[in-house]
Write a structure and sequence with these properties.
GMP Synthetase, Chain A, domain 3; alpha+beta; three-stranded antiparallel beta sheet; 6 helices; four-stranded antiparallel beta sheet
Length: 257
């Protein structure tokens, strides 16, 4: 009956969870009183979850600053207590990097005015550019907001001066009204307006395809290896291996300019 009470809710109720937790860790708990919806924000921690955002050294960062999303131990009942037959793997994967915390493996920030939690993607997607921690996932959201962009990917590329820089790849909608050069200029300005010049987003290519797994996940890690001149293997789950024949020279040319 409690579910039926909210059966007329038409707006999406955003939340974040992991299989390991057995329950949403962050979300809009309707049974406790519906919180206002805010685009991109999944409200606050669920009951029993003590959420913190920390830097690489495990020090809590100020509100509004991007960092590692962790949960202070102990976790509430119902969450994982080990991995089957692999106690050591459980500890090394979730508990060792930040002692006293469960490492969710995601990047997030807590809004400085609303206290809403914004999960920005995996910490693997974080990029350190000239001392500034940036999220490639956040840049992808900005690129995706352009009306002519159908799909996109942003990858980190090593840079001698800044450590790493973001490089973007976009697929346009069918019948795109802009030429590639004009679209690139608009996209670079769009990211600059949203994140500022610290993002160092200056390179973006318009492509006809992106490498994906059969489940639809874009192979950003493989693209990044190509861009950085590192050896890479063809993932067993790739949907169309021939896309690399087309994309590899495009990636190398873009990062070389």
């Amino acid at each position: 009956m409690a579910l039926m009470k909210y059966g007329d809710v038409k707006d999406p109720i955003d939340h974040w969870w992991q299989t390991e937790l057995g329950h949403p860790g962050v979300g809009n708990a309707l049974g406790l009183g519906r919180m206002p919806l805010r685009p991109g924000g999944c409200t606050g921690p669920a009951p029993g979850f003590d959420l913190r955002v920390v830097d690489d050294d495990g020090v809590e960062v100020p509100k509004g600053e991007l960092g590692h999303m962790v949960f202070k131990l102990p976790l509430p009942p119902g969450t994982l207590t080990t991995l089957y037959g692999n106690d050591d793997g459980y500890a090394s994967s979730y508990l060792e990097r930040f002692p006293g915390y469960y490492d969710a493996g995601d990047a997030a920030f807590v809004h400085d005015k609303t206290d809403y939690v914004y999960v920005m993607g995996r910490t693997d997607d974080l990029i350190n550019t000239a001392g500034h921690r940036l999220s490639t996932g956040q840049m992808e959201e900005i690129l995706q907001s352009h009306p002519e962009v159908a799909e996109c990917a942003v990858i980190p590329v090593k840079d001698k001066l800044k450590g790493a820089i973001p490089v973007g790849f976009v697929i346009t909608n069918r019948g795109c009204s802009l030429d590639d050069a004009s679209l690139r200029r608009e996209l670079i300005l769009l990211v600059r307006d949203e994140l500022g010049p610290v993002a160092s987003f200056k390179k973006v290519a318009v492509v006809r395809a992106l490498p994906k797994t059969r489940s639809g996940k874009i192979l950003r890690g493989t693209m990044s290896k190509i861009a950085n001149g590192e050896p890479y293997g063809m993932p067993a789950t790739v949907d169309d291996p021939e896309v690399f024949d087309y994309l590899e020279p495009v990636i190398r040319e873009l990062v070389a300019t």
